[in-house]
Amino acid sequence: MSSPLTPPPPPPLLPHHHHHIPSLLSSAAITRRSFLLSTSLSTLSPPQPPLDTTITDRVFLDFSICSNYFRSDRTLSDTFSTLCTDSVPLGRLVLGLYGHLVPLTVSNFKTMCTSSSYKNTLVHKIFPGQFFLAGRQGRREKGEVKVPQDLARNIETVDSKAFKLTHSRPGIVSLCLSENDDEDNIKLDPDYRNVEFLITTGPGPCPQLDSKNIVFGVVLEGLDVVTSIASIPIYKPAERIRQFNDLAEFLGDERAQNARTIWNRPLKTIYISDCGELKVTKPSLPPSLP
Fold first, then answer.
1. 13, 184, 195, 244: most buried, per Cβ within 10 A?
2. 61 burial level (CB within 10 Å; 0-12, 13-18, 19+)
């Protein structure tokens, strides 16, 4: 008979496999709660549909080099047709346009091509390893663009949905807004329209252009032509001139901006020698995100 001070014997142990039942139940409960939480969050923020980059239209741009355009004996009556009879062709770009995504931008660009408004106008700036600019507005005799009077105003330039595509690789075609036309008096013209465009040259992406310019197409054929244009020598100011210009801009000197208009200009006269629309049997091609 045991003493009254002796503690009672411990209860018999349950079989070994019963020890893990509470932890298993707890784990299952946590997993279920996590699943329910993730399900509820996914219903609160449904995935965004992919951007419609179906190619609805195709246009072409032919580029050439003119060796005589800036010759010293040129007169005001001289134009590309009289000065560039012996121009050297660089080649053709075929561009696919995203007409479902940005219809106004695409419609205006097509109009500029089919009306020959881009024809005999200059590639006016090249940023090596990034992009080149064309379609600058101004005086036609200077190789700049004259916009058709009936060209629609592009309200997509203030629509955030039009800026969602990125400049992710070479051959991206974009309506140029961030680097648009240097002179303020051009922009203040009541007939001003956004028609200046850029094409990325690579080799890498240009994230600095994202959310500032409207991507509306892609180069389908002629990336070798893009590479040729990108390799043309440009005017580069000396570092001392850049520093002086930065100081002048800081002090509010308007001449600083005027001086920068010649920076990055090609040292050869590259121009759009022809342009237009390409009619195809099936205008809608499979989507191709840039």
1. 195
2. buried
Q: How many CB atoms lie within 10 A of CB 247?
A: 11
Alpha helices in the chain (DSSP H): 21-44, 80-83, 103-114, 184-187, 223-230, 239-250, 255-260
Q: What are phi and psi of 48, to 5 degrees?
A: -75, 140
pLDDT in tens, the chain (290 residues): 444 455 556 555 555 444 444 444 444 445 554 554 455 445 555 677 789 999 999 999 999 998 765 544 444 455 555 667 678 999 999 999 999 999 999 999 999 999 999 999 999 999 999 999 999 988 887 888 999 988 999 999 999 999 999 999 999 999 999 777 666 667 777 778 899 999 999 999 999 999 999 999 999 999 999 999 999 999 876 666 666 566 666 666 666 566 667 778 999 989 999 999 998 765 555 545 44
b/e map 79-118, b = 16+ CB within 10 Å:
ebeebbeebeebebbebbbbbebbebbbbbbbbbbebebb
Burial class (CB in 10 A: 0-12, 13-18, 19+), 212: middle
pTM for this predicted structure = 0.75
Label residue 264 left, alpha or beta by phi (over 0 means left) and psi (-120 to 50 means alpha). Answer: left
**How many Cβ atoms are within 10 Å of 58's Cβ, its own excluded?**
19
Preceding omega of 203 cis (within 30 degrees of 0)? yes
Exposure on the CB side of residue 30, measured as CA atoms within 13 A: 5
- The answer to whether the CB of 143 falls within 8 A of the CB of 63 is no
**Contact residues for 257 (Cβ-Cβ < 8 A; gap 6+):** 182, 249
Of all residues in the chain, what percent are helix, strand and coil, respectively (each to 5)?
30, 20, 50
